[in-house]
Amino acid sequence: MTLETISAVTIKAYCDIPHLFQTNRLWKDIDPSQFSIKGYDGKILLCLSTDLNANNFKFSHSSYKIENDIVSMPVLNKNVSFQSAAHAAVPLIIDDGVHFSRDDLIEKLKPELIKLAIEFDVEIIVTEKSVYERDETEITNAIIYINIVGLISRVQNCELHTTILVQLVQNKIANTPLFIESLDIESSSLIPFCIGVDMTNIKHLASVYKTDIHIPTLLNDDDMSLFAPQVFFSSRIHSLASEAKHEMSQYIEKLKENIYYRSLTSLSPGKLLYIKTYYQEEIFKLMIKYNTYIKITDDSVKFQSSSNEFLAIVIKLFTTSILHEIVEVQMILDGPFEFTDDNILNELHYSDKSHIVFMRNTSNLSQLVVIGSNSHNVKSTKLNEKHQLLQFLTTVFENEKVNSNLVQLRAIFEIHPDYEEFISGKKNGKLTRIMEGAECLLELKMTENDDNINLFLLTNTYKEFLRSYIQVMDELPAEKSFFIPEVYHRPVIGAGGSLIQTTMRKHNVFIQFSNSFLLPRSEFSHLRYDNVIIRCPTKSESNIIHAKQELNVLAQNYGSTQSKSLVNLSAGQYRYILKTSPEVIGQIEKSKNVYILFPFEQPGSEFLLEIRGTFENSEAAARELIDQAFGGEIIFDLETTIKDENDFYNSVIIPFNRVYNIIITLQKNHVTLTYNKNNSLLEKCIEELEKYFLNNKLKITKREQIKDFIHIPPMELQDMTLAEDLKGTQMYYHNYNKNQYTNRDSVPDEIQNTKSYIQYPYYRYGYGY
Asked: Where is the K Homology domain (predicted)?
């Protein structure tokens, strides 16, 4: 038996356009035997990852459209890993008032653009205005556009390098310094490690080192192996770009010591093709959120992570958020109608807009497997419009040639093993109820080689299939995960589970709490992982948001009764804790039963860290955090601000961190040293720092060693509670600050300069100034 996959794709060809320069590598004259484009006889650019022949593609010469100088041709793609052409535009922007010659600029760019075009096998076209995307807003001060056309993986790689080239040119013309550092990455599978959980690595390094970080594409394609991935760091201060590169390089080397792998191998070729074609965005989100690489091959899904815990989480989420949505439906006919290429195109009205993939037995054209998504449209009131796959099947069975010859329909749903009882119900009650209401057969099976459980649905007519399919879909799990501080779990659950049982019965949902203390910690950010899951059948999905709101209110009400201890946390201490002991925060929260509102990004000046718990516990936790995690701290106040900050970074901040292992931060005229209390090089560092101040005529007005980091607020502030967020059930935590006084003269001295800070308690990156 020969099984072939069939998918509808759109081949793109680009028309030659007026330009200022082009590399002239990929343009071809139109071949009338392949294309007949009415009203156009110029050159076209047609990039394909495979040969355009009848064995691979089925298309009509007249089935095309031209829009914005792009020719689009829908075709049937058979058994081919397909990439069509794509394009990207990088504008070169020059500020008003800067004098330059555009012609001279293009002449200087030509050699570099030709190198890029050859390296990435693309066509580069320089134009005066935006092309191929004319519906987008023009950038008014863009003097030229560098357009890249080719296979999508090559375009995205070339776009990154072109962006760096353009940045260098723009800064050179503006006479402003820009330093670029590049870090070679061994494999594309390490790119998620560079990004970090929820992009924490990028955010931290960009913020701390005032550096733009450019990451290569996560595009999941075999063509990516042709290019060595690189991460670029750009900054106006050379030492900062260099240090950001150094930090990321060390982090990657550390993670490479422990890498875990797993594969899902029981997926059909058609389902793998469907995931690769229509679920790239969802895969990107999973890779970024959980620091895990996912690759779709022709025979499996491969996972790679630096944590075994992440690996298990991602595989389960991949199954529940992607595989649960994809259904295979086998149609078996008995009659003259066959699923030939022409019938699929014409009788089934198949196109790339259908979002469908087929599998076909070439020796038996009376059978066809249709693969599609059951993602639903909750706004629709019609059964056949609620699910994407049903929209296509309904159109198919409106054709009497298909409907009258139908023998059997068989749908296969792939379910994670943890959800077997959820789907079947106690003693198969749910499945039995569906079979009693429709003429169908339902069966759960899992063989030794299966990664997941398969739920089979068999019917003899489309009418019964539609009825039973909708009922099965209604019983599939819908769920939402989010974070509630562990210290609030027990009060939210209630004595003997009384509160949580009431919430579950009220909203007809299942709620599960978990402990996230043991999940991996990062040296770039304090991570808060989802630790509450609300689950229910899809038919009751709208209840989840109401149950979540109720849990948040319960948690916030309990939080408002908690005592608060405040700790002064500088930017240097923030970095020191993450670098030396990021696990301490979770350990103290667990042992002292408190919630530490540790910021997710480097805080500004005079930030107050809040610790919530009972009066005794919050204060004890604050003391323990200072003893176990804080470094020593010395602050130098200067008479004036440092004028040449670039030199201070290059000569002091970065070198001293490397040589003396001391973190130095600069805020206005305050220089802060944060260090290990046993650092034997501290005095040498201070001596060199004072020498720098002396040589640069910077007078020290005050030198203070911080001895106690506990902040005691004024009495009138000690009973403040949470303020309700007008946008919903979330609450704001208001830290103690000068903005709480309407009369500035009444602000106590100890908080005169405290910055207003607001933190959402349960939002992953929820703080703002």
From this structure: 177-253, 476-556
